[in-house]
Amino acid sequence: MKHIVxxxxxxxxxxxxxxxxxxxxxxxxxxxxxxGAIHHAAGPQLREYCITLKGCATGKAKITPGFxxxxxxxxxxxxxxxxxxxxxxxxxxxxxxQNSLQxxxxxxxxxxxxxxxxxxxxxxxxxxxxxxxxTTIDAFLKNNPSIEKVYLVVFGEKDxxxxxxxxxxFYP
Length: 172
Ligand code: AR6
Fold this sequence. Notes:
6-stranded mixed beta sheet
């Protein structure tokens, strides 16, 4: 799976893929961080569309068009707020990746870009989150050959180095 998964230090709103994943909140109506950047780049139609979806449970995901984004779709996944591991956060984070990839397969999406869900405002420890992302994506790809490329997008050199280190440990 090593050749399918690639880490990019970039602004996810600028990436041309079939779908980008948003680190959304339960309301799906926008917020700060990557969510704010995606809504800003997609334009107001995204929020109007999201309102009709009536929210999303933590660990689940919903799909919308990408509107003004280069990506055709946005998959809005709701990560858990880190609470020292006391609220099933690791399992819920894994479900975000699994449910997003499942939606991708159902919508014939072959290239997808994920931000590092929950590691900003939701305070999930970065290394732990990155390891969960890699484990979950790897297991999914083994059973779903239709996905051709998964980009793991980080914002900044520190996160980039960290993610590369974890990836190299994962795929020696
Ligand atoms: N491209 C790629 N990655 C980014 C970008 C970007 N443009 N902007 C930030 N990141 P966060 P969360 C990284 O806080 O922790 C929102 O208000 C960032 O460095 O966006 O899941 C929602 O509405 C970090 O590693 O999402 C929710 O209320 C990662 O994206 C809440 O924040 C996730 O950081 C969700 O919190």
